[in-house]
Specification:
The protein folds into three domains: 94 residues, Butyryl-Coa Dehydrogenase, subunit A, domain 1 (Orthogonal Bundle); 108 residues, Butyryl-CoA Dehydrogenase, subunit A, domain 2, CATH 2.40.110.10; 127 residues, Butyryl-CoA Dehydrogenase, subunit A, domain 3 (Up-down Bundle). The chain has eleven helices and eight strands. The strands form two sheets. Strands 1-4-5-8 form a four-stranded mixed β-sheet. Strands 2-3-7-6 form a four-stranded antiparallel β-sheet, with no helix packed on it. By secondary structure, the protein is α+β, with helices and mostly antiparallel strands. Strand 2 and strand 3 form a beta hairpin. The protein starts with a helix and ends in a 5-residue tail after the last helix. The structure holds flavin-adenine dinucleotide. The site of flavin-adenine dinucleotide (FAD) has 18 residues, from strand 1 and helix 11.
C-alpha cells in the first residue's frame, strides 16, 4: 500500500479535481437508488467515488472497495473533511448489511449483493422490530417456511424506517419455531418489489413519516439468501446491530463517513446564550458550557480511539458505549439550545425563522436517538454485562 504521505498528496489532488462544488458542505447523501433526487453534481460525485472504490473504502476490491487499511482510511476521511466533501453514499446497505455480508455471507451472496451496494444501486430497509418484539427482539414471530428453493414469509415488521423508498429489506424471521427462541431465527434478504411485500407509512405528529409498517404475505426469498446459515440469525443479527450502533456512533468504517469529527456545537450555543436573559454572563451557564465543550472533546477522542483500535469495520460491544454517550451529548446540546432560545424554540409557523423551526425539529428528532438501534436502557444493560462484566 502507498506510503501515507504520498497517499495523502494523491488523494488531495484527486479530490480537488473530482469533487464537484455541489457535493461540498451540508446537504443530502444518497442512501441508494430510490432515495433522493440527488441532482447532477451528487450523481457525478457518487459515480466517481464508486469508481475509485471509495464509497466503501475498506471493502475488498472485488466487491467494489479499495481495500484501504485503517491508516489510509483515516487519511481519506481527513482529506474529505478538509474540503467538506459530503459522503457520497450512506445507509443500511453500505453500513449495516454490507459489512455483515463481508463477515457472514457466502461467496455467492457477496458477489451478488456487495458490488451493487457499493455503487449505491438499491436502498435497504431493516426488518427487525415487531409489535411484540422491540427490546426483547428474540420474541419475534414473523415466520419463514422453506418450500422448494424459496422461503415463504408471513408476518409484520414495524418502525421500518424509509421502507416506502427502499428496494430491499433484511429481515429477522423465525425458521424453527420449535427451538428455544434465540435458536430458531434466521436473517434473510428480501426483494421489496414483489406483491407479497406491502409497506404502510406510519404518520407522525410532525406530519412527516420516515416510519413504516412492512407486511409480508406469502413473500418469497431465495433459499440461498439466508445470511450466516439457517437458525443462526441471532448471532448474525446481533453483529448487524453492532454495525448499526457503530454507525450512529460515527465509528463504522465501512462507508466513507466513519471517524469524521462532527462540528462543535459550542459556538452556536454561546451565540444562543448571548441573546438570552440571564445568559452568557451567568457563571452557572458558563460552567455548563465548559463542561459540555469538554465532554464533546472527550467524545471526539473516544471515537478516534475506537477507530484506532478497530480490528474489523466496527467494534463489538464498544459500539453500545460510544453510541450511548454520543446520543446523550447530542440531547444535552439540544436541551441547552431550548433553554437559551426560550419561546423562540416553539416555532412551528412562518412567524418563526427557518433556523428556529429547524432547531425545534432537531430537538424533537433527537429524542429518538436513545431509542433507535436499541434503547438507552438496553445499551446500559449491554455495557454492564459485556463491557464491565457485571453479573446478570
Ligand atoms: C428513529 C427510529 C428508527 C427506527 N428504525 C427501525 C428500523 O428501521 N427497523 C426496525 O426494525 N426497528 C426500527 N426502530 C425500532 C427500534 O429498534 C425499537 O423502537 C427499539 O428497539 C425499542 O423497542 P420498542 O419500541 O418495542 O420499545 P420496548 O422494547 O417496548 O421498550 C419500552 C421501554 O422499556 C424499556 N425496556 C425494555 N426492556 C428492558 C430491559 N430489559 N431493561 C431495562 N429497560 C427495558 C426500554 O428501554 C424502553 O424505555 C426504530 C426506532 C426509532 C426511534
Amino acid at each position: 500500500m502507498a506510503d501515507l504521505n504520498d497517499f495523502r498528496a494523491e488523494t488531495r489532488a484527486w479530490l480537488e479535481k473530482n469533487c464537484p462544488e455541489g457535493a461540498r458542505g451540508a446537504g443530502p447523501v444518497s442512501i441508494g437508488s430510490r432515495s433522493l433526487d440527488l441532482g447532477p453534481d451528487l450523481e457525478v460525485w457518487l459515480e466517481r467515488m464508486a469508481g475509485k472504490g471509495w464509497t466503501v473504502p475498506t471493502w475488498p476490491v472485488e466487491y467494489g472497495g479499495a481495500e484501504l487499511d485503517r491508516d489510509h482510511y483515516r487519511v481519506l476521511i481527513e482529506e474529505l473533511t478538509r474540503i467538506r466533501a459530503r459522503p457520497p453514499l450512506s445507509g443500511r446497505g453500505v453500513n449495516y448489511i454490507g459489512p455483515t455480508l463481508l463477515e457472514f455471507g457466502t461467496d455467492g451472496q457477496k458477489a451478488r449483493w456487495l458490488p451493487q451496494i457499493a455503487r449505491g444501486d438499491g436502498a435497504w430497509a431493516m426488518g427487525y422490530s415487531e409489535p411484540g418484539a422491540g427490546s426483547d427482539l428474540a420474541s419475534l414471530s414473523c415466520r419463514a417456511v422453506l418450500e422448494g428453493d424459496h422461503y415463504v414469509i408471513n408476518g409484520r415488521k414495524t418502525w421500518t424506517s424509509d421502507a416506502v423508498d427502499c428496494d430491499y429489506i433484511f429481515v429477522l424471521v423465525r425458521t424453527s419455531p420449535d427451538k428455544p427462541k434465540h435458536q430458531g431465527i434466521s436473517l434473510v434478504l428480501v426483494d421489496m418489489s414483489q406483491e407479497g411485500v406491502q409497506v404502510h407509512p406510519i404518520r407522525l405528529l410532525s406530519g412527516a413519516s420516515p416510519f413504516c409498517e412492512t407486511v409480508f404475505e406469502n413473500a418469497l426469498c431465495r433459499a440461498d439468501d439466508v445470511v450466516g446459515g439457517v437458525d443462526n440469525g441471532w448471532t448474525v443479527g446481533k453483529r448487524l446491530l453492532q454495525f448499526e450502533r457503530s454507525t450512529h456512533a460515527g465509528i463504522n468504517i465501512s462507508g466513507s463517513q466513519g471517524g469524521r469529527a462532527e462540528e462543535s456545537r459550542v459556538p452556536e450555543l454561546v451565540q444562543a446564550y448571548a441573546g438570552a436573559d440571564d445568559g452568557i454572563d451567568s457563571p452557572a451557564i458558563r460552567a455548563r458550557l465548559i463542561r459540555f465543550a469538554m465532554n464533546t472533546e472527550a467524545q471526539r477522542f473516544t471515537q478516534a480511539r475506537a477507530v484506532e483500535e478497530l480490528k474489523s469495520r466496527a467494534p463489538g460491544f464498544t459500539s453500545s458505549a460510544v453510541k450511548l454517550t454520543g446520543a446523550l451529548l447530542k440531547q444535552e446540546g439540544d436541551e441547552m439550545l431550548v433553554e437559551a432560545m426560550g419561546v423562540r424554540m416553539l416555532g412551528a409557523d412562518d412567524s418563526f425563522s427557518a433556523s428556529e423551526r429547524n432547531a425545534q425539529r432537531t430537538w424533537l428528532y433527537g429524542k429518538s436517538l436513545t431509542i433507535a438501534g436499541g434503547t438507552k436502557e438496553v445499551q446500559k444493560n449491554i455495557i454492564a454485562k459485556r463491557v464491565l462484566g457485571l453479573p446478570d
